[in-house]
Amino acid sequence: MYCLPSNFWGGKNTPNAWHPKFISTFLPISMRQISKLASASIQVPTFTTQSKVMSFFTDKVVAITGGTDGIGKALIAQLIPQGAKIATCGRNHDKLYDLQMEYAQFMLHTMASDVSSEQDCQHFIQSTIDTFGGIDILINNAGVSMRALFQNTDAQVIRRVMDVNFFGAVYCTQFALPSLLERKGMIVGISSIAGYRGLPGRSGYSASKFALQGWLESLRTELMGSGVHVMWVCPGFTASNIRNAALNSQGEAQGESPLDEGKLMSADACAIHILRAIEKKKRTLVLTMTGKRAIFLNRFFPSLADKLTHKFFFKKGELVK
Questions:
Q1: Cβ-count burial of 165 within 10 angstroms (0-12 exposed, 13-18 middle, 19+ buried)?
Q2: Is 103 a catalytic residue?
Q3: Strands (E), the chain
Q4: 26, 67, 247, 321 - which has most CB atoms within 10 Å?
């Protein structure tokens, strides 16, 4: 894990973390990265006075799951200049290391965690509280998709999707809730249009997002009057790695996207909309006109929505998207 010790921020604007003892103890790196370091001339950075934008997020502790790719990484890029204290987790050690080095001058805490593991979630949340003193905003962003017809899909694939997309949010929220109640914070779930409209080839993904939204709605009602705000965000198709990493019928990564990523909303644009909605404490946020149209049609013209959805995803009886 990548966990900053209490004496990380050294005197005279120089981080103690750059001491060789810290690197060898707290930042386990891959052989590829060791090779990079050996072949490059490294200068010890110093912390300079950065002009940060005073905003709603200034000095707030924001915990984001799945921050090494896509929307999660874009959220970090938007929050850093606003002076937020950020904690994030992911499964890829190399990506976490790169993220830590990219924002070495800022208050960023990272940890290698798999949100489908209750123990990993507990460690991530507790280490965030130990590092920053509490949590103001929890963004349950980590997720995995799938693309396979149900009749061909191993049940373990659906279980894996549910474990990450639904139980990952449940675990992190449960461990963070005492701190969020104390600070009157906010819980955010990154859902999907698939949480309103079941999508063919994504039966497990749709199930996980329906479950996530139902659970968040229950939680929102339970916490009324507590000062904790609960909201969920439903992006449409967003340009990210989630489709490349989507599981096939056997639980293996697809490795390619069936959509034209260049025509989709960027992760950066999506992150900007999400942060504006958090600041305004909206109940829900639905992005893209296609997403809003799909929800409208599914609510008022469900039979038509079935036909249009089938037409979009199938061609000559074959799942093409």
A1: buried
A2: no
A3: 61-65, 85-90, 108-112, 137-140, 186-190, 229-234, 238-239, 265-266, 284-286, 314-315, 318-319
A4: 67
Instruction: Categorize the per-residue pLDDT at 240 as very low, low, confident or very high, splitting at 50, 70 and 90.
Output: low
Q: How confident is the model at residue 215 (pLDDT cuts 50, 70, 90)?
A: very high
Global pTM value: 0.80
Report the CATH fold assignment for 56-319: Rossmann fold (3.40.50)
Span 39-50, pLDDT tens digits: 443 333 333 334
State pLDDT tens for residues 263-288.
Answer: 678 889 999 999 999 999 999 999 98
pLDDT of residue 239: 57
Per-residue b or e along 261-281, where b marks 16 or more CB atoms closer than 10 Å to that residue's CB: eeebbebebbbebbbebbeee
**Is residue 27 classed as helix, strand or coil in its secondary structure?**
coil
Contact partners, residue 75, CB within 8 Å, separation at least 6: 62, 64, 67, 139, 141, 271, 274, 275
105-140 core/surface letters (b: 16 or more CB in 10 A; e: else):
ebbbbbbbbbbbbbebbbbbbebbbebbebbbbbbb
The two structure tokens encoding residue 194: 């698939």
Question: What are the pLDDT digits (tens) for 67-99?
Answer: 999 999 999 999 999 999 999 999 999 999 999
Residue 66 tokens, joined: 């799945």
Strands 108-112 and 314-315: unpaired
Query: What pLDDT, on a 0 to 100 scale, did the predictor assign at position 175?
Result: 98
Which of 2, 97, 196, 205 is flagged as catalytic? Answer: 205
In the chain, the amino acid numbered 231 is M
- Distances 281 to 46, 102, 230, 278 between C-alpha atoms, Å: 37, 30, 8, 5
CB 192 within 8 A of CB 209: yes
Domains of the chain by residue range: 56-319
Separation of alpha carbons 244 and 253, rounded Å? 7
